[in-house]
Amino acid sequence: MKKTENCKLIRKREIADGIFDFVVESEFMAKEAQCGQFLHVNCGDSTFLRRPISICDSGNGEVRFIFEVKGKGTEALKNKEVGDMIDIMGPLGHGFEIPKDVKNPVIIGGGIGVFPLLKLAKELGGNATVFLGFRNKDRVVMEEEFERTSKTTIVGTDDGSYGFDGYIASAMDQYLNFNECDMIYSCGPMPMLKAVKKIAEERGIKCQISLEQRMGCGIGACLVCSCETHKEGTDRYAKVCTNGPVFYSEEVTLND
Predict the structure, then answer these.
(1) Does residue 187 or residue 212 have the better pLDDT?
(2) Which run of H or E residues covers position 66?
(3) Taking phi first (over 0 means left), then psi (-120 to 50 degrees means alpha), and beta for anything else, what does residue 5 get?
(4) Would you place residue 45 in the very low, low, confident or very high pLDDT band (cuts 50, 70, 90)?
(5) Measured between alpha carbons, how far apart are the two ends of the chain, in Å?
(6) Nearest Cα residue to 243 out of 256, 225, 231, 230
(7) Distance separating alpha carbons of residues 245 and 179, to the nearest angstrom
(8) How many CB atoms lie within 10 A of CB 74?
(9) Where are the alpha helices (DSSP H) in 21-161?
(10) Which among 243, 206, 207, 217 has a CA at the least distance from the CA of 228?
(11) Distance between alpha carbon 77 and the CA centroid of its chain, in Å?
(12) Fewest CB atoms within 10 A around its CB: which of 178, 200, 219, 245?
């Protein structure tokens, strides 16, 4: 279920250079939101299209989302101040599934892809082993929050300036050599998702991935966010905004 409403911004902070953490009031969205879903946000009068932003957390009448300033829309959004109203549509999309028989889950996120994984970690009841990858030490965020909501949290940086030295998918691969896992959940840049998909499928582990995709309408009326699946015929392409953003890895073809 989705709806559009004006939500009051009640908390705002910059958690890293150009990365903003917003909390808005919305009883409806807080109640309806599922881990892995997203919001379609009207960033301001200077932008025509809404921007899709993942839900980081929700509850008690509040919805939290975190975004990195990357263009005109998010530049306008960052200038909102506490007390301002933000036009938001949501919650949207198909989120992560948590089968009852999952006992040893792994969560892996990279860059801004770590944001929608916090709510998932909470809903997994603290049983997940979490891998968080960033470019360098200055971009590391939310480490303590994941440590509070997970069994183990491993942080890595591409340049080795903090934590595991190298790509975070390699850290997960090493972990899987010695530990059981019956589900991998992932969100992040495409090279990381491709690596995670390959590792999971070679090891025979079920894997859910959340795709980051440019969107137009956010509700399935346009074809801007289509992705290729392994189905044939007219069902070969799926819409990330409605069929996703979360898919099982074997369902989709990941292209750069």
Answers:
(1) 187
(2) strand 62-68
(3) beta
(4) confident
(5) 32
(6) 225
(7) 28
(8) 18
(9) 27-32, 72-77, 117-123, 143-149
(10) 243
(11) 19
(12) 178
Other beta carbons within 10 angstroms of residue 64's beta carbon come to: 19
Q: Which two tokens stand for residue 131?
A: 């891998």
Concatenating the DSSP letter of every residue in 162-183 gives SSEES-HHHHHHHHHTTS--SE
pLDDT tens profile 198-254: 999 999 999 999 987 554 545 555 455 455 666 555 456 665 656 658 999 998 878
User: What element of type H or E holds 133?
Assistant: strand 129-134
Average pLDDT over residues 181-205: 96
Say if residues 140 and 164 touch (Cβ distance below 8 Å). Answer: no
Q: What angle do CA 11, 14, 15 make, to 5 degrees?
A: 110
Please name the residue that has the structure tokens 């008690």: 60
Q: Which residue segments constitute the domains of the chain, with CATH numbers given? A: 3-92 (2.40.30.10), 105-209 (3.40.50.80)
Residue 26's pLDDT is 97
Q: What span, in angstroms and rounded, lies between the C-alpha atoms of 88 and 31?
A: 15
pTM, rounded to two decimals: 0.92
Cα–Cα distance, 136 to 244 (Å, whole number): 29
Tokens 């303590």 -> residue: 144
Burial class (CB in 10 A: 0-12, 13-18, 19+), 143: middle
Position 238 scores a pLDDT of 61
d(CA 11, CA 81): 9
